[in-house]
Amino acid sequence: MHDNQTSTQASGPLPAIPATQPKQSLGVGALISDTFAVFFSHIVMICLIGLVPMIVGQVLPGLLLGLLADSSDPLGTGQVISSLVMGLLLLCVYTFSTALVIQLTYDEQLGRRVRVRAYLRPAVRSVPAILALSIAISLILFVAQMLLFLLSAASPYLMLVGVPFQIGFVLWVLAAFSVCAPAVLFEQAGLRGLGRSFELTRDYRWPIAGTLALTCVLIALFYVILGAVIMVFTMASGGLLGALLFGLLSTAGTSILVIAVTLIYARLREIKEGISIDQIAAVFD
């Protein structure tokens, strides 16, 4: 018995085992910094990826409008059909460009060259699911807006309480379902992308909301500065070129948000599952 006590004293007290592992930080500053670094590293390619679908999405609906619309009856069946087709086509092309930018972001983070041709097939395959999930999120937000309207109609005091709640709810929903598109692309989650995003963002939704909000503020400053330059340039050169430049500016802002969401997804998988970015992107190799 004496020997056992001696050996225990010699070895010293056993280290305490923590009950729970401390929560890792999302790294908001690093995410925002990396987002703009990716954008400016490939600014030309990213703007072209967004601009070409935007042009196609405006030209083709115009052709469909001319083919299907009945000029004698502006509210006729042909006009309604052409408007629906135009809206659906616009959503598809923007979803397609989003999928391209997501894959470009991963190649940039891995230090690989941009391979737009390799992005096409995964992007096309992911469009239906991403589009369906985007519509589902829009319906959730629409229902929330209707509830706020009913509250404001019942009592102005309820509206005062409801507006802050509504803003918080919108931010929470956007954060909770923010990584649907990367989940569809890299995990082939399909319509399960909503649940997958909800799972990944758990415990990090408010930091994600803050990251997206700060990114939007920087994008707004980006718009103000470059928008003023483009306006001066447009006044000196002509309207057509100015419209093209403003289209590029709009595309740039959307692409920056897509890059931020992609990096958030990668960070969440690293924190929660210990999966590095090269393992995520290996699905396309």
From TrEMBL:
Protein name: Glycerophosphoryl diester phosphodiesterase membrane domain-containing protein
Residue ranges crossing the lipid bilayer per the database entry: 36-60, 80-106, 127-151, 157-185, 206-233, 239-266
Leader sequence segment: none
Taxonomic classification: Bacteria, Pseudomonadati, Pseudomonadota, Alphaproteobacteria, Hyphomicrobiales
Organism listed in the record: Roseibium sediminicola
Keyword Membrane: yes
Keywords: Membrane, Transmembrane, Transmembrane helix
